[in-house]
Amino acid sequence: MSDPNNPNIHARSTPQWGLMQREMFWAPNEGKVQPFNTDPEEIRKLAKEKLSQGGWYYSSCNAGISWTHYANRTSFYRHQIIPRMLVDTNIRDSATTLFGHKLAGPIGFAPIGINRIYHPTGELSVAKVAKDLNLLYCLSSAGSYSIEDVGKANGDGVRFFQLYQSPDDEQAVNMLQRAYDSGFTALMLTTDTWQLAWRHNDAYEGNYAFYHEHGTGGIGLNDKVFLQRLKEANIDPAKEPKKAGAKWMDENIWHGHSHTWEKLPWLMEQWKRISGGKPFCLKGIQSVADAKKAVELGVDGIVVSNHAGRQVDGAISSLDALEKIAEAVGDKIVVMYDSGVRTGADVFKALALGAKFVFVGRLWVWGLSIRGQQGVDHVMRALLAEFDLLQECAGYPKISEINRDAIDSLPRVAIMPSDPNIV
């Protein structure tokens, strides 16, 4: 099962990820047991067993009744791969380059906040796995460990910083400075979440960790501007952690103060000044008009995303938005993708429809909740192995060969789901 001495192992610039399958098939001969089944549905079920109710809701809740989440998943079915036969896949590679960084695959860790509710080591473990696998890591500014500590955990890895822009300009600029000082090489502004959408289960349970046990996490309490704001408000975070947490979130993260295109040049200028011109990206773009506006303003990259269905219920699927946006501006700006990715085939389809890079979220979150750092590593290695084997089996040895010709698409039809919470 897959020659462990295949010449491709030495010819490629990344590990032969697909050999993980051979190792797993051989493992029983050595009395080894796998950490857990990597089928996305099995991962989801196990994570639900492991997490507290609050942790499970935060990892799985969608806006409204999950129609956008369902749209994301069904659109992956609608777009289908066309395998090619008798292609030389003996020399193949999953490596890609993003903003000058050579990475082991076109797959990155999407920015997800407050990882400590999934496992005590939180973002630190995720950042370490990203470094070990040479994959892109993106830290959320709603994280539970400090920017500085996550930077250290990621070491010489490639890392981006995701910003929820505070209406307090001094606070926003200080976050950029901290990110740059900690080795983050690009800024990603999330544009779709000034305010959390209505999520039934979270609202019913009062499930908002920042108002409860986690407060400001490690980012707010290590920020000199925010500490000054606490002092000005006469709040002692040691004695009143919940008040401090509420102030951090309500005034700096999900504050409900919408920013506009008019404000964007200022933020971009601040980041470029601080970082010496490093990439500035927007996350949450879903319309062609917005993508064109980003190009017009000189943004370096966009992430086509609907926040995995967590912000606008009944919205267009990210994959369908990607196709239109890539056709319109794919030759003018770096187009990335996020939302609903569960498999190597999903990654392939997003690349084929125009993405240069694909972010993964809930899979690694659930892996973290199941077995910490080992769980994240197991999930991501399996995803890389699945993608590597798909390249071979489908006949696409190079990332550059995965394009629109590799996909056939079924007609767009409206189908009422029997279970809108499909994994």
Automatic annotation (TrEMBL):
Keyword terms, alphabetized: Flavoprotein, FMN, Monooxygenase, Oxidoreductase
Name of the protein: Putative lactate 2-monooxygenase
Active site: 307
InterPro entries found in the cross-reference section: Aldolase_TIM, Alpha-hydoxy_acid_DH_FMN, FMN-dep_DH, FMN_HAD
Species this chain originates from: Cyphellophora attinorum
Binding site residues for FMN: 111-113, 140, 162, 190, 283, 305, 338-342, 361-362
SUPFAM superfamilies: FMN-linked oxidoreductases
Family under the similarity heading: Belongs to the FMN-dependent alpha-hydroxy acid dehydrogenase family.
Domain FMN hydroxy acid dehydrogenase: residue ranges: 32-412
Binding site for glyoxylate: 58, 164, 199, 307, 310
Parts of the chain that traverse the membrane: none
Example GO molecular function: FMN binding
Listed Pfam families: FMN_dh (PF01070)
Highest taxon of source: Eukaryota
Cofactor requirements of the protein: FMN
